[in-house]
Amino acid sequence: MQIIENSVVSFHYTLTDKDGKVIDSSNGNAPLTYMHGVGQIVPGLENALLGKTVGEKLDVNVSAAEGYGEHHDFMVQQVPREAFQGVDDIEPGMQFQAQTPQGGMTVTVTAVDETTVTVDGNHPLAGQDLFFAVEIMSVRAATEEEISHGHVHGEGGHQH
Ligand code: ZN
């Protein structure tokens, strides 16, 4: 069957950047399972999978805007070190939950000096073009319960 709205799809993928460096891959793990049309995967990839069938392999180029979004400089901020009281060693790469007027946001530490910590609220893959090599392993219709919950149940999904 073809991938349509509310299909439950499992696929293997390798994600590389524009230089061909592997960022992420399902090789050696279970395939990724998602419900089509509810925004569980980046829009550029979801759009490319529409209408595809089991066994198909495809290469999908996703622009930053259709991936994890553009990189916004205003989401990079310098925070006084005192704001991290109770954290002994702050190092680049660490992630924290920050409270903003818009709600919780995950920020990544990108630089640290004596007095200031630079944090970046952009997704780590924001601003990057993404290249997916995909193989579709299974396609089935979602159950009514899955559709009402908006997520997949069972293998690769919620166990409840
Ligand atoms: Zn559920």
What does this protein look like?
The chain has 160 residues and is mainly β. The chain has two domains: 7-68 and 126-149, Chitinase A, domain 3 (Roll); 73-120, Thrombin, subunit H (Beta Barrel), CATH 2.40.10.330. The mean pLDDT is 94. The strands form two sheets. Strands 1, 2, 3, 4 and 9 form a five-stranded antiparallel β-sheet that branches. A four-stranded antiparallel β-sheet has the order 5-8-7-6, with no helix packed on it. It has helices at residues 43-49, 144-149, and strands at 7-16, 22-25, 32-35, 57-62, 76-80, 95-100, 103-112, 116-120, 130-141. It is 8% helix and 39% strand. Bound molecules: zinc ion (ZN). Zinc ion is lined by residues 149, 151, 153, 158, 160. Zinc ion binds at residues 149, 151, 153, 158, 160.
